[in-house]
Design brief:
Number of strands: 7
CATH superfamily of the largest domain: ABC-type transport auxiliary lipoprotein component
Number of helices: 6
Strand order of the largest sheet: 3-2-4-5-6
Radius of gyration: 31 Å
Shape: globular
Structural class: alpha/beta
Distance between the termini: 85 Å
CATH architecture of the largest domain: 3-Layer(aba) Sandwich
Order of helices and strands: HEEHHEHHEEEHE
Length: 242
């Protein structure tokens, strides 16, 4: 009888020790589960941030038409950056030619020659511009701002480009007004506090022009954009050319 009690007591002690061991392990098990849940939530959030969506054009009336791209800029920009107008018009024409089906673009040299030979072209009625150029549509880009630094600080890079963009239809109802118009702005680089020793003027200007031309061209054809542009990381999709 005594030996039976001792055996039962030993089993009870062993069982309690096992329960204590299991109970002490529960926080660790739960901690691992919580970490797994946090990791899964983070992966799901990153997946959401990397999502891309299809965006329809704001204006789809360039297809099957002859088109001229006109770029205007303030006199100070024309003086300090004489190649800027040609860079924007040439880059925009290139993207439209690539992405808009059956578009016929007036050659940029012919456009510039017309601008130079018509000093007051930007004072013309819109319909008269299209008539003079001999095209169905005119995309007019009116630059409002183009700078590479914060105001009053030439030691940091902070590229900003802003313009109003309008479309003129030669066969439209109102030849004195845009059929549609938008404000387009771009910045480069995305990070702040980049000093002059970390990048060259050419790199910043090229990046800013590329971003502005892309955003302007997006108005005219279906394209892919990040669903969350402020969270999207292009380095995670290196082969994707947005």
């Amino acid at each position: 009888m005594r030996s039976t009690r001792l055996l039962l007591c030993g089993l009870s002690v062993g069982l309690l020790a096992g329960c204590a061991s299991l109970l002490s392990a529960i926080p660790t098990i739960l901690g691992a589960g919580e970490a797994g849940m946090v990791g899964a939530a983070g992966a799901a959030q990153n997946f959401e941030y990397q999502k891309l969506i299809e965006v329809l054009p704001r204006y789809d009336g360039l297809e099957h038409h002859t088109v001229a791209v006109l770029v205007d800029a303030p006199l100070d920009l024309l003086y300090t950056k004489p190649d800027l107008v040609d860079q924007i018009s040439g880059g925009l024409m290139s993207r439209l030619q690539e992405h808009v089906p059956n578009i016929t673009l007036m050659h940029p040299v012919a456009v510039r020659n017309w601008q130079f030979s018509t000093p007051q072209w930007n004072a013309m009625a819109f319909g008269e511009m299209a008539e003079e150029l001999g095209v169905d549509r005119v995309v007019l880009v009116d630059l409002q701002e183009f700078r590479l630094h914060p105001r009053g600080n030439r030691w940091l890079w902070e590229g900003r480009c802003r313009a109003s963009v309008g479309v003129i239809e030669r066969d439209g109802y109102d030849l004195d007004a845009f059929v549609d118009a938008w404000e387009v702005s771009a910045k480069f680089p995305d990070l702040s506090g980049l000093d002059r020793d970390s990048a060259s003027e050419w790199e910043v200007q090229t990046g800013l022009l590329s971003e502005f031309i892309k955003r302007t061209s997006y108005l005219f054809y279906t394209h892919i954009e990040p669903k969350h542009p402020d969270k999207y990381d292009p380095k995670l999709d290196p082969d994707l050319n947005l």
